[in-house]
Amino acid sequence: MNLLFVASECAPFVKTGGLADVIGAVPKALGAQGASVRVLIPAYPALASVVEGAREVLRFDDLFGGPARVVAAHAEGLDMLLLVAPHLYDRAGSIYLGPDGQDWPDNDLRFAALSLAGARVAVDGIEGWQPDVINAHDWQAGLVPAYLRQMDNATPVVMTIHNIAFQGLFDATRLAALGLRSDLFTPEGIEYYGRIGFLKAGLALSDKITTVSPTYAAELLTPEFGMGLEGLLASRQGDLVGILNGIDLDAWNPATDGDLVANYTTEALDGKAANKAEIQSRFALSPGNGPLFCVVSRLTSQKGLDMLLDCLPGLVEQGGRLALLGSGEPGLERAFVEATRQFPGAVGCIIGYDEALSHLLQGGSDAILIPSRFEPCGLTQLYGLRYGTLPVVARTGGLADTVIDANEAALLAGCATGVQFAPVTSTMLGHAIARTCALYAQSDTWTGMMRRAMGHPVGWDLSAAAYLDVYRSALQRQG
Ligand code: ADP
Ligand code: GLC
Fold first, then answer.
1. Nearest by Cα to 108 from 42, 64, 164, 69
2. Which of these, 34, 56, 256, 335, is most buried using a 10 Å CB contact count?
């Protein structure tokens, strides 16, 4: 089966969050199960060296304001297609935001171009290859089925929701600029309460819809989590499937990870102590009697870290330590920097984005805190499991589906891998931290949980097979 992935980021080339990790990993797992996958992303400046050695496979005289081309290259184990359009993507800084911290003003054109190029790959084919199915990821690829319709092409599209909080809404006056036909601007098509909805278009016009965990698939049907799209999703419930994310077991392996000071395995856990010492030194932390908690996260209200601020006095009082790596909302960044002054030696934070340091934190911490208000899947708890860094998580979305809470029954049955809490409030997070400290004090119980967590299956095999089922049913539907 030939599959085209269309997305706005892909690890290890360009990453702002979990979407990139997923786009960089699933194609390999699908490939291992016999599929031929190509991944189309924009050629941001970070891709310059890949573009250099690539072959041109498609050309556009004018793609929303300038010439553009699609080039093909095999890089990092992936068959990449890169949309080279300097007028849209050749910019320093963040791939989504300008220097003022606001979305680039032409983000509609930038990602409409990506979707349009995806549709063209399907229609024209490249080097004799044509996709049987297109998997469009998040709002940036949401217009793929709209452009396919305009081109009278019936290639099936599977739309994957990684995060419904980002919907790609733009003013209706942009319709012509985006090359969209006005007959698609209806409630059954791309119109969303008088505006153009990129994700809405993808959900309304695709053949199948997936999201990244079974619990989030159910949550999306409620007003609290559906963020306005719950009605549309309910009408398409029969086509909506939740498939858990996995992780790249080669990139994230404590036995071989080059970003760790010391490697370790389930049998020989000692290396973790050297990594912990390195974290203590990098974050200016003194050793404590309690667990070393870490956070690796975007700092946004989704992630619930404002609740963690409320819990810091209790965490520190119980001998816990916190090392936080994150960036995002300036108010949250400031608050965590301030907390390092309030709790010197007990709370450390590094504001920024640092891939290598994120590995070290997984490799040396005892527990990872993820108090998200909503979490479509979440990957850091999966990295935590793999590294024996026990996840302390809000019981929502993919966090609920991947961590087994250390309640009495689970401890007796010997299956606990972390701590869950609900409802998602500061008070319950505080209880979860206290429970974690108590478990940590029972070192045999804790070590048992670490070993179990490290053995928990977090690879892509099962989920890749589930994606293939969805692609097959999308194909059958068209047939
Ligand atoms: P989301 O995609 O909502 O941000 P996920 O848990 O799915 O959440 O994925 C986040 C990814 O980004 C993980 O790979 C995590 O390690 C990484 N990450 C988040 N913040 C940082 C940071 N400040 N530095 C390095 N990696 C980070
Ligand atoms: C989104 C979600 C996160 C998920 C990731 C990859 O960024 O916020 O929960 O793990 O996409 O699917």
1. 64
2. 335
Query: Would the CA dihedral through 414, 405, 166, 147 be positive or negative?
Result: positive
Segment 33-71, tens digit of pLDDT? 999 999 999 999 999 999 999 999 999 999 999 999 999
**H or E element in which residue 315 lies:** helix 305-317
Are 300 and 368 in contact, with CB atoms under 8 Å apart? no
Of 322, 321, 326, nearest to 351 by C-alpha is 326
Do the Cβ atoms of 394 and 365 come closer than 8 Å? no
Portion of the chain with pLDDT greater than 90, in percent: 98
Largest Cα separation within the chain, whole Å, is 67
Domains in the chain and their CATH numbers? Answer: 2-246+460-478 (3.40.50.2000), 271-455 (3.40.50.2000)
Best substitution site from 162, 298, 383 to test ligand 1's pocket, by max atoms within 8 Å of Cβ?
A: 298
Q: Does the pLDDT value for residue 130 go beyond 80?
A: yes
Question: Which residues pair with residue 350 across a beta bridge?
Answer: 325
**Mean pLDDT, residues 314-325:** 98
**Taking a C-beta distance cutoff of 8 angstroms, is the pair 176, 211 a contact?**
no
Q: Which atom of ligand 2 lies nearest, measured to the CA of 212?
A: 12
Whole-angstrom Cα distance, residue 16 to residue 46? 13
| Count of Cβ atoms closer than 10 Å to residue 118 Cβ | 30
First to last CA, the chain: 15
DSSP label of 46: G
Please state, in angstroms and rounded to a whole number, the distance separating the CA atoms of residues 246 and 23.
11
Q: Provide the 3-class DSSP secondary structure of residue 92.
A: coil
Alpha carbon 24 to its chain centroid, in Å, reads: 11
Q: Which atom of ligand 2 is nearest to the CA of 376?
A: 9
**pLDDT of amino acid 477:** 78
Residue with tokens 């963690």: 308
Average pLDDT of span 399-424: 98
Q: Is the pLDDT of residue 479 over 80?
A: no
Task: Tell whether omega for the bond before 376 is within 30 degrees of 0, i.e. cis.
Answer: no
Q: What is the pTM of this model?
A: 0.97
User: What phi and psi, each to the nearest 5 degrees, are found at residue 478?
Assistant: -70, -35
- State yes or no: pLDDT of 196 exceeds 90: yes
User: Residue 309: exposed, middle, or buried by beta-carbon count in 10 A (0-12, 13-18, 19+)?
Assistant: middle
Distance CA 371, CA 429 (A): 7
Contact at 8 Å (CB) between 328 and 239?
no
Q: Whose CA is nearest to atom 18 of ligand 1?
A: 297
Query: Inter-axis angle of helices 461-478 and 18-32, to 10 degrees?
Result: 80
The residue whose CB lies within 8 Å of the most ligand 2 atoms, and thus the one to mutate among 212, 375, 399, is 212
